[in-house]
Design brief:
Length: about 850
């Protein structure tokens, strides 16, 4: 079905750009976009010039109904979808709206509207009476209130509505008397009176950012009450007088106006309106009353006859990935612009790359203040606020900060999952951020295995700090083991980390659940500075100043070179707040140690911004990583990206990145003499290090870009088998019919095996409905007996702890009921 998206815009150039960019990610391919530009005075025209596949029309007046009518006349789709220029649609917005048109008498379908934060509801289900009084509900759809002439009727929010174009033509389009306010309510009322139905969906969401406009200011306070009050009275005269007297209409408008004046007075008191706004509003309300009564009396009996709409060519709007392959949730406590380490850097780079591959990608990360949801680079980013003193949650036995974030991830996934349940969740093993989901949901979870807590504890000497620290380490290792044991697939970022975890953790993981896939980074730019203008060779170290990173080995090597008379310049970038045994930082200890001796040329620059870090990389001649352990080594990729040779320890994942003698030099860990010799070699041999830098750059392009890493991750995630309503209905082997109540009738060509991972919440149970409406009812693990009623189920297998149940359905027809909680667990062989 072809859909025309109509956007009316006025002086919101950047908001419009954001909306258009988001529409590029719609999963429905057959859409066109019609933008109707009002008398804008900003740079909207230049923004629209950037989108040659958009139909652009003009509206001479600041009149929303007139603008929408212009857009409807220019549209060529069977369905016209309306969205504001400050709203961002979810990936499947159009597909979900189209699915709501299940019969020809449904003329309008709308969806959920989330507020400016993205974490709260502005609108779910709404109805209006014929005075314009609104009834809203989070639970009652009110779709059955479509009786012609009835006092109440459902209506759709103007920023998230779609209509059959022919139905709009039949009622004469929008009434242009409604310049702003009640315009879409009037359309829905007239459609219902014409015998059509209006349907609100619990889904098809858009995020309404509430940008300033001629109607509202930056505080979302109404600027001008004249059109609002005028339209309120006009609406009542048009639609209510068959039910009540003019006095009732006027009295209802009076109460509405009193509330409007009180609202203005409050905003003036709060400083959201300038002084004198309340007095001005009194005059506007009075004029609105007069105009509304006059216009209402004149047009009370006006009828809108059918309109003949012109035909036009459908101009397809280019979308990045129609028919997305899967919904992917990425969990990472750090995410751009708040990069907290290598894991956060990789997650920030791979998320947009996964969207480019066709995944509907969301990131759940740590926020501050209140929770927000924003669309950034094709990714929905959920920044969840984590209270400092949150009560015990999903990981009550874990340290409070770890429990708080894991619980916040669980709750946000459940909140979003009511509309967009993920097909797979991807996150890091570090801080067991996905363990809450593993414990209290049935979602497929894939943890990324980087440096585990065992290695950090070993190299940081945690276990030497006393029984309390040892107990904390043991506790975190136990939680990590739980993740390893229960995750669907394990993503090891190197063979080295896979071997480390297999050796150090007491878990039994079948080989089919292991998968090694190297990670990568995106490349902001390719500018380099390889000039050697007589200055000293610059050696760069990047990383936290801690024992595992081998900073003490580097300082010792620099001292050795200074004693030999060598003069390379060392730049050390990274957090230097760690206090050593003598109460000093690394820099302070080094300065104290070299008093009275020849000192190497060391510059400690501390933590730096991304821009400053890239400047340091560009100025470096070689990059050094003397770590005692690395599961991978993203610093090496950053160096190779900018054609810098590397000197690193031959440990862990480093051996899988650097080709000795080709991209750089590898030395034994914990050996300052070997490190000093390697640095000295590349200090002397300028041509050799340039060749290594060139080789490393090519290796980065071939193997370690974020695009290549995303392809490898996609191959891994595609091995997860998931059974969900969407997968079953789209299965080529199952001819499915979707019913109005949301169930799916499947005609299976072969037996279907479904494994259920049962919730640990004692109140929940799952139900299969067979075609004869008998059921297999599966209770929670706390209730070990299963209630099996006659039906088409031929085998039920339960494991020892009743955590999983395997159900095999015979071939034939079966009706699946509450299948949102059901998934097939396993890995494609």
């Amino acid at each position: 079905m072809r859909v025309s998206v109509v956007i009316s815009t006025l002086d919101r150039a950047e908001g419009l750009r954001h909306t258009l960019d988001a529409l590029r990610y719609q999963t429905h391919g057959a859409i066109e976009v019609v933008v109707v530009n009002g008398p804008s005075t900003d740079h909207t025209v230049s923004v629209l010039a950037e989108y040659p596949d958009v139909k652009v029309e003009s509206c001479p007046l600041p009149n929303l109904s007139m603008s929408r009518n212009i857009g409807i006349r220019a549209a060529a789709g069977e369905i016209v979808a309306i969205i504001d220029d400050d709203a961002i649609p979810e990936f499947s917005w159009i597909d979900e709206l189209i699915a709501g048109f299940t019969s020809n008498d449904i003329a309008g379908v709308g969806g959920v509207v989330l507020d400016h934060t993205g974490a709260g509801l502005q609108y779910r289900f709404s109805a209006s009476n014929r005075l314009g009084d609104v009834v809203q509900s989070d639970t009652d759809e009110m779709n059955d209130w479509c009786t012609p002439g009835a006092w109440q009727f459902p209506y759709l929010q103007g920023t998230n509505a779609s209509f059959r174009r022919e139905a709009l033509a039949e009622i004469g389009l929008f009434d242009e008397t409604f310049d702003y306010f009640l315009d879409e309510t009037d359309v829905c009322c007239r459609l219902v009176d014409a015998g059509f139905r209006i349907r609100s969906l619990d889904g098809a969401a858009v995020h309404h950012k509430f940008l300033p406009s001629i109607v509202r200011n930056e505080h979302r306070a109404v600027r001008h009450w004249f059109p609002v009050v005028k339209n309120r009275l006009y609406f009542g005269f048009r639609h209510a007088l068959d039910h009540c007297s003019q006095l009732v209409v006027i009295d209802a408008a009076r109460r509405f106006a009193e509330a409007a004046l009180a609202d203005t007075e409050m905003h003036e008191h709060l400083g959201n309106h300038p002084r004198g706004s309340h007095a001005r509003a009194i005059g506007e309300v009075a004029r609105g009353f007069e105009a509304g009564i006059i216009i209402g009396s004149q047009r009370r009996y006006a009828r809108f006859g059918p309109t003949v709409l012109p035909s036009s060519e459908f101009r397809t709007f280019s979308t990045h990935h129609p028919h997305a392959r899967r919904r992917l949730f990425i969990v990472s406590s750090g995410y751009t612009p708040h990069i907290t380490g290598g894991i956060a850097r990789f997650m920030s780079d791979v998320a947009p790359a996964m969207t480019d591959l066709g995944y509907e990608t969301r990131v759940i990360t740590r926020g501050s203040g209140h929770s927000t949801v924003d669309f950034e680079d094709g990714v929905w980013v959920h920044r969840v606020a984590v209270p400092a003193n949150a009560p015990a949650g999903a990981l009550a036995e874990a340290p409070p900060p770890i429990d708080a974030f894991a619980s916040a991830v669980l709750h946000e996934t459940q909140r979003v999952g009511q509309w967009y349940p993920p097909d797979v969740v991807y996150g890091s093993l570090w801080d067991v951020e996905v363990l809450g989901l593993l414990r209290q949901s049935m979602l497929p979870v894939v943890p990324m295995l980087a440096t585990p807590v065992f290695e950090v504890a070993l190299h940081e000497g945690w276990n030497e700090q006393g029984p309390a620290q040892q107990a904390a380490t043991d506790q975190l290792m136990a939680l990590e083991s739980e993740v390893l044991q229960n995750a669907d697939v394990l993503h090891a970022i190197s063979d080295a980390i896979a071997a480390t975890i297999a050796d150090r953790y007491p878990v039994s993981v079948p080989p089919a659940r292991w998968h090694v896939a190297q990670i990568g980074l995106s490349e902001p730019s390719t500018d380099t500075d390889d000039s050697d203008d007589g200055r000293a060779t610059t050696v760069l170290f990047v990383g936290r100043l801690e024992p595992r990173k081998g900073i003490d080995v580097l300082i010792a090597a620099a001292n050795l070179l200074a004693d030999r008379g060598a003069t390379p310049h060392f730049v050390i970038a990274g957090n230097d707040t760690r206090i050593l045994a003598g109460g000093l930082t690394y820099e302070q200890a080094w300065r104290a140690d070299r008093v009275g001796q020849s000192a190497p040329d060391l510059t400690f620059v501390g933590e730096v911004s991304d821009d400053e870090l890239r400047r340091l990389y560009r100025q470096a001649d070689l990059v050094v990583m003397p770590s005692r352990y690395e599961s991978f080594g993203l610093v090496l990729l950053e160096a190779m990206m900018l054609s810098k040779p590397v000197v690193a320890s031959a440990v862990g994942g480093i051996n899988e990145i650097v080709r000795p003698g080709i991209d750089g030099l590898l030395v034994a860990p914990d050996d300052p003499h070997a490190l000093a010799e390697a640095i000295s070699t590349l200090d002397r041999e300028v041509d050799r290090r340039r060749t290594m830098g060139t080789n490393g750059r090519q290796r980065f392009l071939d193997e370690f870009t974020s695009q290549r890493a995303a392809q490898r991750l996609a191959e891994l995630l595609d091995r997860i088998t998931v059974t969900s309503p969407r997968d079953l209905v789209d299965d080529a082997n199952a001819l499915a019919e979707r019913f109005a109540d949301g169930t799916a009738c499947l005609r299976l060509d072969a037996p279907l095996t479904v494994t259920l991972k049962l919730d640990q919440c004692a109140a929940r149970f799952l139900t299969f409905f067979t075609e004869s409406r008998t059921s297999l009812r599966l209770r929670t693990p706390q209730e070990t007996t299963l209630v099996l009623e006659p039906g088409r189920v031929v085998r039920v297998a339960v494991d020892a702890n009743a955590q999983e149940v395997q159900v095999i359905l015979e071939s034939g027809s079966c009706l699946l009921g509450n299948i949102l909680s059901i998934r097939a667990r396993g890995v494609a062989e």
